[in-house]
Amino acid sequence: MASTSTMQSRESDSNTIPFCPIVHPTQKEFNDFNTYIEKLEKEYSQNYGMVKVVPPKSWKARQADYEESLDDKMIVGPIEQNPYGKGGIYECIHIMKKSIPFREYKKKARDFDKVTDNKTIEKVEDLFWKNISFSPPLYGSDMQMSLFDDGVKWNMKEMRSIMNDGLTSNIAGVNTPYLYIGSWKTLFAWHKEDLDLGALNYLHYGKPKFWYCIARSDAHKLESFAKANFAESFAKCPEFLRHKTTVINPYQMIKKLKGDIKISKMSQEAGEFIVVFSGAYHHGFNWGYNIAEAVNYATLGWLDFFPQSKQCRCASDNVSIDHNDFILTLLKNRPELKNRTEVKNFQAWLKQKQLEEQENMASEEETSKEQNSSEEQVEMKKSMIPVVVPEKKKRGRKSKKAATIESDEDSNNHKAETRENSTEPQRIQKKIQKAEKQSKQKLKKEQNQQKKSVKNLNEANKALSSPIQQTEQSLTQSPPQSNRKTSRKNSLNMEVEKVEQEVN
């Protein structure tokens, strides 16, 4: 690489974070953005998530000033940032406030600039993390605006990458730039770019912007750490880091991971670029009042990551690009790329994806047909089961002829039912007659028993009167000789009374 590069060796100490590489391109290198960025990716992206690019001294982004020329412009819907949490783990709540002129915002922001004046990087970091939860700052973010002069190299509103060549329309913040107006402690939470794109960031003016970044190869380590500490957020949305509300002190994270993560940091000064490679997580904060601009870019190497990129589904305004439309538009605008390995690999993946989708559709259709066929068979079986509807019985005299029979199968049953209905009164009459006969027989039996009891009583009286008469005759003829005869009479009288009681 023709440019000079400055970088510190990577530290294994879990208490420190190394700085990312700093590169100084030549004017020739700087003139060809896409070629130069591809070189940077190949050289640094495996171990670093970002590099700082210091443009040639002859280059200038803007001829006009950044003070009076901007004072009357409005910062639309600035965001009040409210981080809450503890132990280096925070969730940031964003509250939109009323629009404010640059002039007014700048005046308020500069009241806090003295906090970081003449401070070392380490001291500013320490101040930020100790005071992150106090005095929520106001951030002018995501403003659709550019401050680059026309015709300037690396001009974000005119920059061409395969991202622009593959889209048929503009997407704000993706292939058109956003402007950011910062103040002390305003921050951007840990996140990757939409669709895992790369990002180009330029600090136009003001206090430094501080960066932390993790190489794409270790992105999963941050994700695992974040999921463990934000389990509830992860349960609601697996891509919750794309909400840009998760703030994690990197020193706490590397301490937990014992330094086993490819992370770097950098302080960006006014007039410098930060290039964030595709798929790299980044996070940072502002030292004071400043003005920055950012846009996404894509290299051919990004085509390897595009298919695996995931999107949050919580909001309807998430960036989404159709894979097939993108590659067709790209090759239409850049036909010279059709033989590039990255393009061929992407087309092969896309073809395989389309085949799998067709197979899935065919499988779903077959499953649907089988299900419908099964349901139809069930309905047919149900329709074959005869449904017996009970006939209403007619009141009054029954017809001797059977009612009209709708089917031969039901004819015999219907006739039997008709015969049964016609003989019902006869059965009832017979039951009544039988009951009357049984009642008469019972009454006659009781009468016979009564007659028999009377007969027995008469016979007993007759048997009793004969010995009494004889005794009386004997008594009249001679005086009583003993009490035995009197006892016998009394005994006979008791028997007579007993018989009479039984008869009654």
Automatic annotation (TrEMBL):
Where is composition skewed (Basic residues) in this entry? 392-401
Q: Which residues form a coiled coil?
A: none
May I have one GO cellular component term?
nucleus
Query: What biological-process GO terms show up in the record?
Result: regulation of gene expression
GO MF annotation: an example: histone H3K9 demethylase activity
UniProt region (Disordered), positions on chain: 357-504
Domain of life per record: Eukaryota
Here the segments flagged for biased composition (Basic and acidic residues) are 411-422, 433-449, 495-504
User: For bias kind Acidic residues, which ranges apply?
Assistant: 357-367
Please name one Pfam family that this protein belongs to: JmjC
Matches recorded under Gene3D superfamilies = Cupin
**Where in this chain does the record put each JmjN domain?**
20-62
Polar residues bias located where? Answer: 455-493
Task: Tell me where in this chain the JmjC domain is found.
Answer: 142-314
| InterPro entries per the UniProt record, alphabetical | JmjC_dom (IPR003347), JmjN (IPR003349)
Matches recorded under PANTHER family: [HISTONE H3]-TRIMETHYL-L-LYSINE(9) DEMETHYLASE, LYSINE-SPECIFIC DEMETHYLASE
The protein's name in its UniProt record: Jumonji domain protein
